[in-house]
Every structure is written in C-alpha cells, then in structure tokens.
Design brief:
By secondary structure, this protein is of the alpha/beta class. The chain is built from six helices and eight strands, in the order βααββββαβαβαβα.
C-alpha cells in the first residue's frame, strides 16, 4: 500500500477574513468554505502524515505593496515602484543585481500575527507537521517546497521522504497560487500528486482555470473529497 500525506495549504485567517481574504479577490470565492471539508479529510483513517503549511512573512516582505518603494527597481519594470499597487506585477533589482518579478499583495500573514494563524476552526490532528514558507524578506514562496526562484528549499520534501510518502493530496488556499505551485513541485519531485478540488478556493477565475489545465497536462490528478476514503484503502484510483 502506498503511503499518503494530506498537505493543507495556507488555511490562515488573512486569506479567509483578513487583509487578503479571497472573498474580496476577483473570483469572490470564500476561503471559509474549505474548513469543514478539510476537517472531514483530516479525520479520515489512512493518512500516514498530515502537513499544514503557513505563509510566514516578515513585516518588510517583498510581496507587500506597502514595501515596494523600499526595494530597488529593475529597468525592465513597467510599473514604477513609487506608484505600485496591489495586484501590480513589478520587477525588482535584488541581491547581486538579480532580476526578480513579483506580484504585489496587501500585507498578510505577518509572522506571529493573528492573520498568520490557522483559522480557529481547523482541526489539527495529533502528530501533524507544520511547514512555514515565505520567511525571506526578498523572496516570495508560493510553493510549500521552494521559494519562487528555487533558491531555497523548505523542509517539506525531507519530511515527506522521512515518512516514506509516495502520494500527496493537496488542498487549501489558493487554488491558482500556493496550491498550484505546491502541487506542481510535488509532482516534479516524484510524488504521485492529487489536488482535492472541493477543498480549494482561488483568487482569479481565469488563473484558476489555467492552473487546473496545467495540472491536467502535467499528470496531476484532480479529485473530489468524497473519493479520498476509498483511495486511501486501495492501490487503484477511483473513477473520476
């Protein structure tokens, strides 16, 4: 029987009712809707590991629109940093004259803040593991495996390997960003990767559809939560 890990991505207060609440983003999806679904999943028998990931940014993080003016602008940036706003894509000139493209967001998930905490209703089973990402001031980290430039790696892959994990089942927030990048890297690292669609919510409708199409093309399996229990007890995937 292959060993399976549930990876719950960024179900944090700021993405549900805080500074970057998904319900206020273009797709108007409500992040709170995933909590009950995820709780049902975490309580299933058969998981060999449950992982919770957290955005965990310093106050001076490069992704915050309010910090854009503090960084050096690259000549390729079409948006001037002094005028940059939320959702703008800018280009910074960072360490050793490196070009770094960045979408700007409201300040969110600041280390130690209420907004960075898991939502209070999320069930955290005994023995689960927490992985923090986005801790470097000048690097964002959508994926729970790597930062956006793949300069640094989190401990997630090592944790999965230490538990002998073969399959990852990924859910949480947001479909088109952190779930997408985490699933992509899980697949690239050789884990059989599933994305639990009804346990995810996203930011932008167009980007959500693009992310889902790329998942299909790369061999990531999209699945609904009501199919997981049978999949945890059989080697064969259920009918989609």
């Amino acid at each position: 029987m292959p060993k399976s890990a549930l990876v719950v991505v960024d179900v944090q207060n700021d993405f549900i009712s805080g500074t970057l609440a998904l319900k206020d983003c273009p797709a108007k999806e409500d992040g709170l809707e995933v909590v009950d679904v995820i709780n049902e999943l975490t309580k299933l028998e058969g998981w060999d590991l449950v992982v919770f990931t957290l955005d965990w940014h310093p106050q001076d993080h490069i992704s915050f629109a309010t910090n854009a003016h503090k960084f050096k602008q690259h000549c390729d940036s079409k948006v001037h940093l002094e005028c940059a706003e939320v959702y703008d894509k800018v280009v910074f000139n960072v360490e050793d004259d490196q070009k770094r493209e960045q979408v700007l967001w409201p300040p969110h998930c600041v280390q130690g803040s209420w907004g960075a905490e898991l939502h209070k209703d999320v069930y955290v089973p005994a023995g689960s593991v927490t992985v923090k990402k986005g801790v470097n001031t000048s690097l964002d980290s959508y994926s729970a495996f790597f930062d956006n430039d793949k300069i640094n790696e989190t401990e997630l892959c090592q944790v999965l390997q230490s538990h002998g994990i073969d399959r990852t089942f990924i859910c949480g927030l947001a479909t088109d960003i952190c779930v997408n990048f985490t699933a992509t890297h899980s697949n690239e690292l050789g884990f059989k990767t599933y994305v639990i669609e009804d346990a995810c919510r996203g930011v932008d409708n167009h980007n959500i559809q693009c992310a889902l199409c790329k998942m299909d093309e790369s061999g990531i399996t999209r699945i609904k939560s009501d199919k997981i229990s049978s999949l945890l007890t059989t080697k064969e995937p259920p009918m989609q």
